[in-house]
Design goal:
By secondary structure, the protein is α/β, with parallel strands linked by helices.
Length: 203
């Protein structure tokens, strides 16, 4: 089955606070947008992805991302990561109650369509997740068809998702495991190979 993905995003000026200083202060919002743009460009070119719903703190501030072929909606009144995922899930399931819904982080600038497609194939319709490269966080969570997403993002989310019955996907998937929170993470993905939007900031 094809998957509908929910991707949350703060206002670019507020996102990725631990990356401040990686580029000049005035370019920080551009860096946050670039990370998301490269993530989303890979997502929309992946196989088995049907819809991509970006749940944004300020839709106008990220409006340019709609050019990638995604849908953008405003976040709910409860401003938390898990609330954003649940809100996106509710909107997607209102259109298709049997949808397979996934939660994906917006800071995967090295993501390849091949790694994402491989993860969706391995999941094979089961509740599943991809841990980050440190093994503690979660970059992708997938619900079983028609079942609740039940996102448990936050500290130790990989353990929380495993406890909720999600299968930990075992393929290497280096680009899908490499989210960016710190300057060290940024150096890692640049070595791995980032998309064009992020790369342009470092020319």
């Amino acid at each position: 089955m094809d998957v509908d993905l929910v991707v949350p995003m703060k206002h670019p000026r507020d996102g990725k606070s631990r990356l401040r200083g990686a580029v000049a202060a005035q370019r920080h919002p551009g860096l946050v947008l670039a990370l998301a743009a490269d993530t989303l460009a890979a997502v929309v070119s992946a196989g088995r992805v049907r819809r991509v719903l970006l749940v944004a703190a300020d839709p106008a501030a990220v409006g340019e991302l709609a050019e990638l072929g995604i849908e953008i909606v405003a976040e709910p009144a409860e401003r938390s990561l898990n609330a954003a995922f649940r809100h996106g899930e509710a909107l997607l399931k209102a259109d298709d109650p049997g949808a397979v819904v996934g939660a994906l982080q917006a800071d995967l600038p090295a993501l390849t369509a091949g790694d994402l497609t491989a993860a969706l194939t391995e999941a094979a319709g089961n509740r599943a997740f991809v841990a980050d490269r440190q093994g503690t966080g979660t970059t992708l969570l997938l619900a079983a068809p028609g079942e609740p997403l039940d996102p448990r993002f936050g500290p130790g989310s990989a353990r929380q998702h495993a406890a909720s019955g999600a299968i930990s996907l075992r393929q290497a998937l280096p680009s899908l495991r490499s989210d960016v929170d710190t300057p060290d993470d940024l150096a890692h993905v640049r070595a791995l190979g980032v998309g064009k939007h992020t790369a342009e900031l470092f020319i």
